[in-house]
Amino acid sequence: MGAVSAYRKKAVSRIIRPFRTANRYQKMHNDISQTVRRDLLAANGLSPEDLSRSLSAIGTHHVDYADIYCQRTAFESWHLEEGMVKSGSFQIDQGVGVRAVSGEKTAFAYADSLNADSIRRSAETVRVIGAAGREAHIRTPSEKYGKAVHQTANPIHSLDSAAKVALLHRVEELAKAADPRIVQVMAGLTCEYDLIYIARLDGRHAADIRPLVRLSITVIAKQGERREMGSAGGGGRFDLSYFSDKLVTEYVNAAVQQALTNLEARPAPAGLMKVVLGSGWPGVLLHEAVGHGLEGDFNRKETSVFSGRIGERVAAKGVTVVDQGDIADRRGSLNIDDEGNETRRTVLIEDGILVGYMQDETNARLMGAQSTGNGRRESYASAPMPRMTNTFMENGGHDPEEIIASLDKGIYAVNFGGGQVDITSGKFVFSASEAWWVENGKLQYPVKGATIVGNGPEVLKHVSMIGNDSALDKGVGVCGKDGQSVPVGVGQPTLRIDAGLTVGGSEA
Description:
Blueprint: H1 12-15, H2 22-41, H3 48-59, E1 65-81, E2 84-102, E3 105-111, H4 116-126, E4 142-143, H5 161-178, E5 182-200, E6 204-223, E7 226-236, H6 245-263, E8 266-267, E9 271-272, E10 274-277, H7 283-291, H8 296-300, E11 321-324, E12 345-350, E13 353-354, H9 361-366, E14 375-376, E15 385-386, E16 390-393, H10 400-405, E17 409-421, E18 427-439, E19 442-448, E20 451-455, H11 456-461, E21 463-466, E22 471-472, E23 477-481, E24 484-492, E25 495-497, E26 501-504
Parallel strand pairs: 4-6, 8-19, 10-17, 16-24
Antiparallel strand pairs: 1-2, 1-5, 2-3, 5-6, 6-7, 9-26, 10-25, 11-12, 11-16, 12-13, 14-15, 17-18, 18-19, 18-20, 20-26, 21-25, 22-24, 23-24
């Protein structure tokens, strides 16, 4: 995940920027539409008009919403271990998902073949959710465009196989040269290229191309009989030229530094204590403990701790939490969501006050709200639901050094590993993969085995200092919900939390 010092991270404000000029927007939209129509629809004997005819068959029944989601995904991965490429794979998957919604009921069918017959049969299956009896007209497709948020080049073709393998060997070379205590290096490279076409009952059609790359690095350091691990990596919606030698070196150094730091780590103390969370990836705690509770479906069903609390104070002053799906080239960004809506910036908590939820079409309609462009699905084989994109806390006014210097005793958690959260209660537990014991405002020594336990909404009320170094993670996040996984971004500035957190360790 990358143990990068909080002091060296770029501010989110430097990352969030307009992506392209209007002329380049239009050219990109034209290119996307032509490519998707040719390589996804026409390649399978389909046209937008064919999809509209299938939707009109659904429309003969009383339904509130219906859509057809066509997808073709090419995926390639390479994995190096012990100096050898242990695995390499390439696969193509394509299919269609058809959905109809009536009130709170959803009917969904999918097929792993993409042709007129599978779409027709899927449409016939889902339309039974509504009562028959009305005539439906075939709506002329009207293609809508989102922002041109990210690149559209196929990353699989951006380097040949030999160059991809050479990149992984370069990772190992750099890691072994960094320190003689590095005894094992594992590296993985993945590329994905998605073609998407969405047709809706209301006549809206949308096309998208979604590239995604990721480089993952894990190293093992050994000193005496002790072995410790360090991880780093990143990626986004780029081609493979993104992984310059400079960037790869940064990833390697971060992984090596984390492993070497953990070699010196002592058992973590335990008990209630003040905690400083680093910027960037530690925002995964915010994502899990707070973000999921702000998704529209949990609040409509009143299973979230935030249900019915719009306008209430749910966090300390200064705490502003945002979900933003249109940040250029980020892993969690999308030109359009999986219902064809434009992604956007959605403020969820503003200066400590709950002001909004993330919505897809269905939840927005049932809650009397508007879609926020957060309808997401893992693939054509899954129905969409409200999901996060890039979720982060905005900057405060304190320097990170000032925040650490203010801590008399406590834990400074630089990086997190895995964790669990209960959406209904907001309770969470996370393990720190790199953490330090702090006394009198100074880092004393690294600690091992620290777990952070607390309640998300309660913890937010005890944020006493917010750094000016808000950053997103390097591009490694994967979010799970109801069995579906989607790429996301997380982020936050350095935070001091004065109460509500219990550190579980091996020392009492």
